[in-house]
Specification:
It is a single chain. This protein is an alpha/beta fold and about 375 residues long. Helices cover about 40% and strands about 20% of the residues. The chain is built from 14 helices and 16 strands. The strands form 3 sheets. Strands 2, 3, 4, 5, 10, 14, 15 and 16 form an 8-stranded mixed sheet that branches. Helix 5 crosses helix 6, helix 10 runs parallel beside helix 11 and helix 13 runs antiparallel to helix 14. The protein binds S-adenosyl-L-homocysteine. S-adenosyl-L-homocysteine binds next to helix 2 and helix 4. The site of S-adenosyl-L-homocysteine (SAH) has 21 residues, from helix 2 and helix 4.
Length: about 375
């Protein structure tokens, strides 16, 4: 995307500048949602709305794009979890943020080993980008797919199996900063020449103070606290449906397993870090997922949560190394090398193995899904 649409930098900037002139400074959350998912307006569209940012030619590579083995492992996890749910005759198989549809295509191919599972699924994708919907429909041709704009639109009344990879890290976060006057929301506004976006601080507010985790009350000046209400609300919504209709969810993302007050919002363009406020719309924006917050939201809705476990441990627990060995057996030396590289990339602690983590949410009457140690014994 970075290579084909350099102009979107100025156009989305114009749209944001016009909004700031009209409404005043905007929150980081408003900035993220506008930059990532604004529908095409007079002067541009959000980062995900018209392009294909994935892969070597694009801006970043996600796990399913590294290797087919990732989606295959998840397909087996889904079929196994369905069997442990008592193999319901119908199940909603949902994926928010499916990107190029690669994960789902690989998962369904692997899950063909369980034909009753394939017969039971109704596939529902949650995707706001018309460009990506198109790519997903090609990747999944032959399957009956229903698209939705939001998780809240998924049908109810049947058990839910949901899988999300690198979806939650794209949801809008708010940032709060401890200033000499107290806690303030971090905002985004225009510089004096009105030709650049800059960070600013909102008014100090006791409301922010009241919403803070206790551990932050006496923080040093400059401490930044990130909060993603959208993640908490959507996890609560997924959990409510699982509690009501049965089911499970697998969430994989780059994130933290304990709360830390450091800012993590970042922009990536052409596989490099990029200044967050520069040329909006030409780089991906994301923030580390706060897994304890997601787990809290699920437990509050009366379902159980497992993990987080590192992606490496999770995938190896599902048999990734055995799958790689099988693929190596029939491969050319060149292919073998790329299988080994993919295995390393997905699992090693220096790469995606520990920064990326998995959690599972499930109905309390269902057994703990594969790949997660029992909470009591961990
Ligand atoms: N899961 C894919 C893609 C991750 S990128 C993979 O692993 O390769 C993030 C995905 O979430 C994209 O498909 C993007 O269009 C979608 N997305 C981002 N914000 C969204 C939102 N608010 N609602 C629905 N989809 C969103």
């Amino acid at each position: 995307m970075s290579s084909d649409s350099p102009q979107s930098s100025t156009t989305l900037f114009d749209q944001l500048a016009a909004r700031i002139r009209l409404e005043g400074a905007i929150t980081v959350a408003d900035y993220m949602s506008e930059v990532l998912t604004a529908p095409r307006g007079k002067s541009g569209a959000g980062y995900y709305m018209e392009g294909n940012p994935f892969g070597a030619q694009g801006d970043f590579i996600t796990a399913p794009e590294i290797s087919q083995m990732f989606g295959e492992m998840l397909g087996l996890w889904l079929a196994d979890t369905w069997a442990n749910m008592g193999a319901p005759e119908k199940v909603i198989l949902a994926e928010p943020g499916p990107g190029r549809g690669t994960l789902m295509a690989d998962a369904l191919r692997a899950a063909r080993m369980v034909p009753d599972f394939i017969r039971a699924i109704e596939i529902h994708l949650v995707e706001v980008s018309p460009a990506l919907r198109e790519i997903q429909s090609e990747a999944l041709s032959g399957f009956d797919i229903t698209w939705h704009n939001a998780i809240t639109e998924l049908p109810e009344g049947k058990p839910l199996l949901l899988v999300a990879n690198e979806f939650f890290d794209a949801l809008p976060i708010h940032q709060f900063e401890k200033s000499p006057q107290g806690w303030c929301e971090r905002l985004i506004t225009l510089n004096e020449n009105a030709d650049e976006l800059v960070f600013a601080l909102g008014k100090p507010s006791p409301l922010i103070e009241r919403g803070l985790p206790d551990s932050l009350r006496n923080s040093a000046e400059g401490t930044v606290f990130e909060h993603c209400p959208a993640s908490v609300l959507l996890t609560g919504e997924i959990a409510r449906r699982i509690k009501q209709d049965g089911g499970a969810a697998l969430i994989i993302d780059y994130g933290r397993d304990r709360f830390e007050p450091t800012p993590t919002l970042q922009a990536i363009r052409a596989h490099q870090f990029h200044p967050v406020l520069e040329a909006p719309g030409t780089a991906d924006l994301s923030a580390l997922v706060d897994f304890p917050a997601l787990i809290g939201a699920a437990e509050q809705s009366g379902i159980l949560a497992r993990g987080p476990v590192g992606q490496g441990t999770f995938l190896k627990g599902l048999g990734l190394e055995q799958r790689a060995e099988m693929l190596r057996a029939g491969a050319t030396p060149g292919q073998r090398e790329s299988i080994d590289q993919a295995l390393e990339r997905l699992t090693s602690p220096e790469q995606m193995g520990t920064l990326f983590k998995a959690i599972a949410l499930h109905h309390p009457e269902q057994p703990s899904p594969a790949g997660f140690p029992d909470r009591q014994s961990s």
